[in-house]
Specification:
- By secondary structure, this protein is α/β, with parallel strands linked by helices.
- It contains 9 helices and 15 strands.
- A 7-stranded parallel beta sheet has the order 6-5-4-9-12-14-15, with helices on both faces. A 3-stranded antiparallel beta sheet has the order 1-3-2. A 3-stranded antiparallel beta sheet has the order 10-11-13.
- The radius of gyration is 20 Å and the shape is globular.
- 38% of the residues are buried.
């Protein structure tokens, strides 16, 4: 894309890169677009004035990185780790009763791995998980409704929170965007946080599925304290200091 004729198209593409990756590397996009680094710098300055991003050394990040939330199809990082976590989580799926599955890529990996002999009632608020679970011949699927969010394809809002208030399950498999020793478990959207918090009260056992990249992060709104969680299933690259924090909070750490 040559400047100035394609400036508007190029800046729109920069925003698409930011939405997908969560960061713009100026040198990389300059090479991809066939323009100079100075051209990209001017584009980023122009976009920053609109409040759509914040410039940092070497590129740009979302205007409020605490509230950054990629679309589901963009969440492809740590795929191998997520697969191992999902495989390990199979050991915690009960043989019967009721199970709750939170929205998210790792929980979706889990339901994709369920054996055909699975026999339980599944409560979900996310369309991708419901669609996958419907392929299980012996799983009864209860889709909890509400206002749908395009980013996560999940129902949120007061109606969703109230619905979870009347549900009881043996196990809840939950996701999160950040785990911090002081700030607890967080997620960018307050409506998603309210639903996740309501999910906690539904379950006798609460299990979080997350890769190591979420540890130490704070992402917007708290939906749980560390002590609210029974088990975290993750990969082997969790920082050592988090092992101590989780142990002190009474959380069992399972490494996949």
């Amino acid at each position: 894309m040559a400047d100035p004729k394609y400036a508007e198209e190029r800046r729109a593409e920069l925003l698409r890169v930011l939405a997908s990756a969560g960061r713009i590397d100026a040198a990389t996009v300059a090479a991809e677009f066939g323009v100079t680094s100075e051209t990209v710098r001017k584009d980023l300055i122009a976009l920053e004035t609109t409040g759509l991003l914040r410039r940092v050394h070497g590129g740009a990040v979302p205007a409020d990185s605490h509230l950054y939330e990629p679309d589901l199809e963009a969440r492809i990082e740590f795929s191998a780790e997520k697969q191992r976590i999902a495989d390990r989580a199979l050991d915690f799926v009960p043989a019967g009763g009721a199970v709750l599955f939170d929205a998210g890529t790792t929980t979706h990996r889990l339901v994709q791995q369920l054996p055909r002999t699975s026999n339980f009632t599944a409560y979900v608020n996310a369309l991708p998980l419901a669609t996958t679970l419907l392929r299980q011949p012996q799983v009864r699927v209860e889709l909890v409704g509400g206002m749908m969010r395009a980013v996560t394809s999940a129902a949120v809002g007061d109606r969703t929170v109230r619905a979870f208030g009347g549900i009881n399950v043996g196990v809840a498999f939950l996701g999160t965007n950040g785990i911090h020793p002081e700030r607890g478990l967080t997620t960018p959207n307050p409506d998603e946080a309210a639903v996740k918090h309501a999910m906690l009260a539904c379950a006798e056992q609460r299990i979080v599925l997350t890769d190591h990249s979420k540890f130490g992060l704070v992402r917007g709104v708290r939906h749980a304290e560390l002590a609210d969680i029974d088990i975290i299933i993750t990969d082997r690259d969790v920082p050592t200091e988090m092992h101590r924090e989780l142990d002190a909070a009474g959380v069992e750490l399972v490494i996949a």
